[in-house]
Amino acid sequence: MSTTLSLSYLHAAMREWRRHLHQYPETAFEETQTAQFVTAKLREFGLDVHEGLGGTGVVGTLRAGTGGKKIALRADMDALFIQEHNGFAHKSRHDGKMHACGHDGHTAMLLGAACHLAQQPDFDGTVYFIFQPAEECRAGAKAMIDDGLFALFPADCVFGMHNYPDIPLGQFAVKPGAMMAAFDCFEIILQGQATHAAMPHLGNDAVVAAAHLITALQTIVSRHLNPADAAVVSITQIHAGNTWNAIPDSVTLRGTVRCFKPELQTQIAAQLRHLTGQIAAAFNVSATAVFNPENPGYPVTWNSAAETEQARQAAIAIVGEAGVDGQPASSMGSEDFAFMLQEKPGCYLWIGNGSSANSCLLHNPHYDFNDAILPIGAAYWVALVATVCPVL
Question: Which positions fall inside the Peptidase M20 dimerisation domain (predicted)?
């Protein structure tokens, strides 16, 4: 607990930073003010700063000792296109955008760790503080990697952290292997022939075809995959027509696929295309199915064993063994931090945001990051640096 207590002096500052960021949310690849705020703080702490990586990404570098390992710590900065429904003073001032996933808190905790380590560099090595844009569906991690992240900052290992409302306040959850699922999005366009709603026999109804296809797609998981393999196929958008009395000529369906094995991604995609083609043919409409039409899908978030144990030990140092769940259920949610884990060994863990009658899930218009965990999360980062880069 000593590290947590030593970071309590930064609690008020981190809360101020976090609430400032919450008021001014910026979405994917538009985090210019957020990046400027982060850059100013890092330079104030005395770190070397690299701006504009992957668009709006920022990397701060801190060295201590005589060499040692190079460790990268990552926080995401982007917000979501959600209208905030909270009424507190620090609610979003940007209409239609809010920090509904806690990236404001992630940024504040990593800034707190950078501040503390700059003042008390009790480690031997190099720390890269990565502030990443566009985690929400836009693969900002891949953009930073493609822009030379690990060529410019050759980390030996990389670590990420995310708040989790279903975990008790300040506790941690982490395990080796699959922590979060792979993610692919898809778009299906069914093209029929428009006609008057009173004369459906004169057209080819893409809406009816879409209705049958939506139901059929649910059989991919229930009837075509091994029941021991977890996967989810979800339709999240349906777009068709713009008037009451006309059957439209086309329907667009969009959705997501999530699973824990690359081979399942391939199998699900093939079955989705097969069902789309067969049902389209049955209703005499044409169809196209495209995966990841705008952005790359996300791989499985896979924690390497040695680095997971280092993360677990660092968490235990902060909250004790009873406060660390070493076998959490893997989440069907996805993370573009997975791209970093494909490049470097590392670990992604969850910190509890609290579970109570007044708490709510991520991506909810009433969500707010719990400021009580700021010093705990920052202390975890500090303990992790001491674990990976000890002073010998």
Answer: 186-269
